[in-house]
Amino acid sequence: MSGGLLIAGTTSDAGKSVVTAGICRWLSRKGVSVAPFKAQNMSLNSFVTREGAEIGRAQAMQAQAARVEPSALMNPVLLKPGSDRSSQVVLMGKPVGEMSARGYHGGRQQALLDTVVGCLEQLRGTYDAVICEGAGSPAEINLRRTDIVNMGIARAARFPVVVVGDIDRGGVFASFFGTVALLSPADQELVAGFLVNKFRGDVSLLEPGLDMLRDLTGRRTFGVLPFRHGLGIDEEDGLRVSLRGAVRESVVAAPVGEDVLRVAVCAVPLMSNFTDVDALAAEPGVVVRFVDRAEELVDADLVVVPGTRGTVRALEWLRERGLADALARRAAEGRPVLGICGGFQVLGERIEDDVESRAGTVDGLGLLPVRVRFHKDKTLARPVGSALGEHVEGYEIHHGVADVLGGEPFLDGCRVGAVWGTHWHGSLESDAFRRRFLTEVARAAGRRFVPAPDTGFAALREEQLDLLGDLIEEHADTDALLRLIETGAPSGLPFIAPGAPS
Fold first, then answer.
1. Is 391 a catalytic residue?
2. Which NCBIfam families match (predicted)?
3. CATH fold label, 3-232
4. Contact by Cβ (8 Å): 26, 473
5. Do domains 3-232 and 261-457 have the same CATH topology?
C-alpha cells in the first residue's frame, strides 16, 4: 500500500481529530505503516517531540495511535493565538514570530505550501499511508486562495477527501451538501464521500437520508459512527477533560478511600495545555472542574493554575475576578495550590515581560519566591527528574525563565507549604509521582482520600485509542477506505453547482 487520505469536516469539532486517530490505530493494527499529518494547526495545546520541536497535541496523540514517534513533519505549521487578531507562528517546531491573521494570509502562503508539501512527501516516502486532518471546513471560501490545510494540500498531493459531519449538532445533510456545493470543480473531484459522526439511535432510520444524499451528490457515505460518551483525544481548543470527562466536570469513578478529592482548575485566558489535568481526572475519586469565580474555590481541595499563552493577562484576570485574593487566602491557610508553566509564573513575586505582553515589570501574586524574566528564545525540552521521591517525566514550552530564590525544590520550580510550582507539563502523567502528590494534597486538605494503586495513565490512553480504532473497524466501510487510500478518489464524480441540487 502507498497512498493517503484527507479527513475534512463540515465544521470545527466535527470529529476530524478522533476519526484521524481511529483510522491510524485501525491501520496500525492491520500492520500498515501509517503516519498522521496536519499541515496547519491552530491550538494552545501543544507537545514537544524528542528532537525538541513543538507540535499540536492532537498530532502527538494521533502518532501514538499510529504507534510511531511524533515528529515536526506531522504538523509543520502551528499557530498559537495570543489574541483575537494575532498568533505566534511555529514553523517546523520552532517559533518564527508573531503575526496578525491578515498578515499571515497576506503573502507567505506559497512558501508555507511548499514547506508542508515537502513534509508530506517525506512522510509518504517513509510510511505506507499518511492520514491527513483538515482544519475547520474546506468550504471556508474566503480562505480558499491561501488554504494549505484542506483542499490546498489535497490538491497538491492528489489525496481523496472524506468529509466528517457531527449529526448530534443537527443539520448534517445540509452541511454535507453545502460543503461540496461550495467547492470548485477541481476540488469537488477529490471529495469521495462522507462519514457521519456521533449518531444516536437506529441507523436504519438514517438510511433514507443517506440514499437521498447519494442521489443529490453522487457520493457515498463511508460509515455512521455512534455517539460514545467520554471518547476523544487531547483537545485542540475545546475546554474538556479528555479521559472520563465532560465539558465542565469530570465523570468520577468510585473512590478507593472514604472521600473524593475536588480539583478546581482556573480557566485563565488563553489557557494552554490544560490537558495536564487529564491525569488527575483519570484517578478514581478525583473530581475535576474548570472555574472562573472565586466562590468556586471554597470547597476545592486542590486549585490548579494552568498554563497560558498570556501570563500577564492571566494575572490581571485572576485579580479582576477575585481569584488572586482567594489563592492568597488558600496559601495562608495551608490549602493546596499547584501552578504549571504560566500558572507557576503568576504565583511568583515578579514578572519582567518585554516579549509576550510587552508589559514590562509586573508584580506577581507573591505566593512563591520566584522571579520570572521573559526571553525571546522559547524553551522546548523533555526533562526527566524526580520529585517526592518518585521518577517524573515532562515537557517544557515557555518563554519565561524562572529564578527560584528559595523554598523547597520541586521539579524545576519550588514548593512553599502547600503551594507548588513547576514549568513541567505532563508531570502528572507519571503514575507513582501523581499518587504521591495526591496523597500530599489529601493530607493538607484533611481528606480521607486514597489514590488507586493501579491507575496507569498511559494504559488508559492506549485503551482510548483502541476504542477509536474499534469505532472505525466496526462502523465504517474499511474495505472502501482502504481502496481510497490505495487508489484515490473515484473518477467521474459529478460537479454540484451551488443552489442546484440536481
1. no
2. cobQ, PRK00784.1
3. Rossmann fold (3.40.50)
4. yes
5. yes
Whether 266 is a known active-site residue: answer no
- Residue 348 C-alpha cell reads as 511568583
Among residues 153, 130, 115, the alpha carbon closest in space to that of 28 is found at 130
CATH number of 261-457: 3.40.50.880
Q: Which cell numbers hold the place of 152?
A: 490546498
In this predicted structure, the answer to whether residue 235 has a pLDDT above a threshold of 90 is no
Q: Which of 398, 399, 425, 475 is catalytic?
A: 425
pLDDT tens string 186-215:
999 999 999 999 999 999 999 999 999 999
Residue 302's Cβ-count burial label (10 Å; 0-12, 13-18, 19+) is: buried
Given 341, 399, 414, 475, the catalytic residue: 341
Q: Which long-range contacts (CB under 8 A, 24 or more apart) does 212-218 make?
A: 212/173, 213/173, 213/176, 213/177, 216/177, 216/496, 216/501, 216/502, 217/176, 217/177, 217/180, 217/494, 217/496, 218/493, 218/494, 218/496
Q: Where are the domains of the chain?
A: 3-232, 261-457
pTM of the model: 0.92
Query: Within a 10 A sphere around the Cβ of 86, how many other Cβ atoms?
Result: 16
